[in-house]
Amino acid sequence: MMQTGTVLELTVDRETPLGYMLTDGEETILLHKNEATRDLGEDETVEVFLYADQKSRITATMTIPKGLNGHEWMEVVEVLPGLGTFINIGIAKDALIPADDLPVFEEIWPQVGDHLLCRIKTDRRGKLIGKLATQDVMLDRSINAPSNILNQNIQGTIYRLLKVGSYMISNEGYVGFIHNSERKDEPRLGQVVEGRVIDVKDDGTINVSLLPRKQEAMDEDAQVIMDYLELRGGAMPYSDKSAPEDIKEQFNISKAAFKRAMGKLLKQGLIRQSEGWTYKKEEEK
């Protein structure tokens, strides 16, 4: 019996205006001309992949989809809230990664254009399903990071999300972990991120921080403060004396980082502080 998700060798029974009728001796199936990679002759044997088309009819293609014999990187081509994400597997039919296999919160689902490492299978209804690579698969595919990359910048793709942090696979093939304290926002599944290596572990994996280096952070935080002052008309009810929780709530930075940025702005003569308020110098009357 012909089943979706399988690769079979079938024989060309006859040609039709739409394509070729293939047979295994008992059943016949259509190979549309759009799914044939070359012209075929009667009685010729051809290897095809079977899948269900948009109308749930079993059809054939001479293109073997990606991810059928192992994990491959697939591009996300559509995201449907509540249902899941569709990935391009190289044939006319895309495969679905069901919502149950994605993060609980849809804001950290992959976006169109992201890439995920997946393999392909069929569900009980014969639909093509994408299965994300597990941690074991990623570790098996990875290579050990050299110790001399400590403190270097690195780029990679997020492939696993946990409450405690996120896992990435670098462009070089290193498995990296990003603790939730080493990022400002949680990256989405499939997002390409750039950080710096803060530890190379004995097992060859790395720890990565997405936070900027102190000087870079100071520049960024100082700009955030100046932008906020601009929105407030040049004055804000925050200063070095403000409570840490108030600073965190408004600027999403620690009090220490806030004080460093404020110190830089004071030194540059861009601001002044008075009675718990901060003012842009150019706003003075």
TrEMBL record:
InterPro entries assigned to the protein according to its UniProt record, in alphabetical order: CvfB_fam (IPR014464), CvfB_S1_2nd (IPR048588), CvfB_S1_3rd (IPR048587), CvfB_S1_st (IPR039566), CvfB_WH (IPR040764), NA-bd_OB-fold (IPR012340), S1_domain (IPR003029), WH-like_DNA-bd_sf (IPR036388)
Ranges for domain S1 motif: 151-211
Protein name in UniProt: S1 motif domain-containing protein
One Pfam entry name: CvfB_1st
Entry similarity comment: Belongs to the CvfB family.
